[in-house]
Design a protein that fits this description.
Layout (H helix, E strand, L loop, with lengths): L20 E14 L2 E14 L4 E5 L3 E6 L10 E8 L5 E3 L3 E4 L1 E6 L4 E2 L4 E8 L6 E9 L1 E2 L12 E10 L8
Parallel strand pairs: 4-13
Antiparallel strand pairs: 1-2, 3-5, 5-10, 6-9, 6-12, 7-11, 8-10, 11-13
Amino acid sequence: VELTNDSCDIQVTYTPQAPTSGEKTALIVTSYSREGVQYSYSFQLQASAAFAGVLELVQGDLNFGNITQDTSPTAVLPTKELHFQNTGGIGIALALPDISGHFAVSDNNCPSTLPENSSCQIVVALSDPSSLGPKTGTLSLSYDDGLPAGTNPANPLELSLNADVKTPPNLLVT
């Protein structure tokens, strides 16, 4: 490159290739000669990266399977414990879980802000084990992942729940 006016522009773009966070550094070294004299300059660059928060279901079965009908007033609601983890590079702000269909949230220990690499649990219950037939529902978890709204197709995290309430077996007492 031949310089005119004794200046030039260098453009540097930092594009992380894998989920990472924290400070990154690089060194640019330039050299040139002028009137037989060699000159050299070095520039230290620093950048920060924080990948978006990512909420994932890491443990738990969304299928309640076959449930025996229970019409008693003290019916115990079948439950499933679901474990979620923030696998992203920043903490995420969680909204309260939204659940539809034949299910209800019976316990939620997820904090309003889930730090990176942290996990939490939500317990989901079949809300009516007295009526027969297939039961469906959706658990939806919205969160602030650090990205512009609408750009993350996995947010909200939507999980389909299902169960099938069956008639209890007939017992013949003799």
